[in-house]
């Protein structure tokens, strides 16, 4: 359970740290792309279907986000300051996505990867919407949020990579009483998605504070 939590935290952190954006940074005018790779013990998993939904647009000054209809989120970054908050928001947006059209839906091939290209700058909700073949033997990934593009090392990175870590489906054995562990797989995916988000959020908050200080002076 501890290792699962660590893995998920790392993914969330990468996402948010990457988005600590200075307003003078070089901006990526071209569209962004998101690659999701699903593997288990170095083995690529085919048959996992993912749908992505754009839930917010990146502001023109690149200091935050503006919610995008039909999703009901005002772009308040305070709702993303903690992993629990990110999980709560992702769950809420996932429920709203059931009445929305996905920006794209793709299924992993032999390399275990899906590549979403031509994305508008903003925040995306990633939802696993199906599993066939090899993917049916693994747990369903929990929804998470991703920022695309990301800001890294002074430049905008148009290519965002996410690598959720699946778990093998636990097959119930008859006539054996076993205490079922709950939350492990969910936490793994939540922490993964949260890490993807946390890095960028930290940057945005720092930038916003600097802008406010500059305005006061």
TrEMBL record:
Residues 41-165 form the Gram-positive pilin subunit D1 N-terminal domain. It holds the Pfam family GramPos_pilinD1. InterPro entries: GramPos_pilinD1_N, Ig-like_fold. The chain crosses the membrane at residues 188-207. Keywords: Membrane, Signal, Transmembrane, Transmembrane helix. It comes from the Bacteria. Residues 1-25 form the signal peptide. The keyword Cell membrane does not apply. This is Gram-positive pilin subunit D1 N-terminal domain-containing protein. It comes from Mogibacterium diversum.
């Amino acid at each position: 359970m501890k290792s699962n939590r660590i893995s998920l935290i790392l993914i969330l952190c990468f996402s948010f740290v990457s988005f600590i954006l200075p307003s003078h940074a070089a901006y990526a005018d071209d569209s962004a792309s998101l690659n999701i790779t699903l593997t288990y013990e170095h083995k690529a998993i085919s048959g996992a279907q993912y749908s992505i939904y754009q839930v917010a647009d990146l502001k023109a000054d690149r200091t935050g986000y503006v919610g995008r209809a039909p999703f009901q989120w005002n772009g308040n970054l305070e709702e993303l300051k903690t992993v629990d908050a990110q999980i709560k928001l992702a769950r809420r947006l996932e429920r709203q996505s059931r009445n929305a059209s996905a920006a794209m839906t793709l299924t992993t091939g032999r390399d275990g990867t899906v590549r979403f290209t031509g994305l508008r700058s903003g925040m995306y909700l990633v939802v696993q919407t199906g599993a066939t073949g090899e993917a049916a033997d693994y747990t369903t990934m929990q929804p998470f949020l991703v920022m695309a593009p990301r800001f890294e090392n002074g430049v905008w990175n148009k290519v965002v990579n996410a690598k959720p870590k699946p778990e093998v489906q636990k097959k119930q054995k008859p006539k054996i009483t076993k205490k079922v562990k709950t939350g492990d797989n969910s936490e793994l995916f939540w922490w993964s998605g949260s890490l993807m988000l946390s890095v960028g959020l930290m940057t945005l908050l720092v930038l916003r504070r600097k802008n406010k200080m500059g305005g006061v002076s």
